[in-house]
Amino acid sequence: MYITDQGTALAQGTPVQGVEGVSSGPGELVVELPLDVLREAVRALEEEGATA
């Protein structure tokens, strides 16, 4: 997970396709992240006081 200077987050993960109930739009990519990576990113953001 990366925080940009534009107030957004970027996720780097393994691309996945054909996940039931998930659809992506043109130019979008669905990635899979380990839950511990996501939890750590949320914890770090909370510590910094960042908001969505």
Determine the mean pLDDT: 87
Q: What string, H for helix and E for strand, traces the elements in order?
A: EEEEH
Helix and strand content put the structural class at alpha+beta
What general outline do the C-alpha atoms trace?
A: globular
Number of helices: 1
Strand content: 15-25%
**Largest sheet, if any?**
2 strands, antiparallel
Helix content: 25-40%
Strand runs, count = 4
Terminal Cα span = 14 Å
* Rg calc: 13 Å
Strand order of the largest sheet: 1-2
Unreliable residue runs: none
Features:
1 helix, alpha+beta, 52 residues, 15% strand, single chain, two-stranded antiparallel sheet
Fold and architecture overview:
The protein is of the alpha+beta class. Helix content is 27%, strand content 15%. It has one helix and four strands. The strands form two sheets. Strands 1-2 form a two-stranded antiparallel ribbon. A hairpin with a 5-residue loop joins strand 1 and strand 2. The model has no long low-confidence stretch (mean pLDDT 87).
